[in-house]
Amino acid sequence: MEMEEDQSKSRPEEISxxxxxxxxxxxxxxxxxxxxxxxxxxxxxxxxxxIDNSSPLESTKSFLDRFSEAKxxxxxxxxxxRLVSDPESKARLKSDLEKVSISIAELxxxxxxxxxxxxxxxxxxxxxxxxxxxxxxxxxxxKLLPKKKFAFKNKAAKRDPNNATSTAEDRASETILPExxxxxxxxxxxxxxxxxAVLVKHFGxxxxxxxxxxxxxxxxVRLTSSLRxxxxxxxxxCRVFVGPVxxxxxxxxxxxxxxxxxxxxxxxxxxxxxxxxxxVRSRPIIEDSSSVRFAPYHLxxxxxxxxxxxxxxxxDSGNWGNVDDFRWLRAVQSPNWSILPEDERVSIVxxxxxxxxxxxx
Length: 361
Description:
Pectate Lyase C-like, two-stranded parallel sheet, single chain, 13 strands, disordered N terminus, alpha/beta, 11-stranded parallel β-sheet
């Protein structure tokens, strides 16, 4: 008797043909939402896991497992977006694709943080995968969210055909000015949106975490002691002097600058007319850069030798001059970078005496 009652309770209610279609749509939308939540949960678990400071020799296999899991999750989400058909899910496409973009940025940050122990081959392979994911996202955006055509309302002022100099300058400025990049600025402490300032910070310990420099113009930055990771975005005509970085340094969109940096890995994107004085364990990587020059680290401050020793950067590996240009695949050296001639190098820069400036949160 009890079995019959249980079976009767488990039978689905009869649904009329008229109501079947809207109910099916609701079920489909609910399924899509569950998949989205599952994706976010998996991604958060795989990427947002903090570095275990008690295990500095974290294995490459552990990283590759986490990287592969996050990669699959991103690919699954992109595929889900491509298969969306119901109106409710289509309305969320822009938001979903933005989340995918953030996920890729977090995956790139994971590679940056772990690069200090990864073999060069794994770094190259991981960066190649991230580039492919970015391309897949760009294709999905173009296909699923095509941009509307537009035209400028005001016509451009007519140029004087007799003024050849002015016309040539206009064309040159149009060529030199780079397209503004869509850079994901990290929510970490740092110096941001400053101009004509001397910005100084001393790190008490490497456990203070990441530090960001963004949107600086005509500034001098001095960071002493060691920090875990450094992210640099959109600097113009700046001089940046930094003590050892335990993890890696990511540089994006800088022009007419000078950097003195020590780190286990340094990656440079969209740099122009900039000099880099480096001490680095792996080969520096440049992409989409031009007229960049390299020289050995020339920094000095009280306690620097101990900081370099504690960070595993006491000896100069000579990699400052072994630059990899990921946009130059020919056998001959890339024309985008060169060794800075000795007679043009600055002398050792001492940044010991400086007052500390508070950073932006």
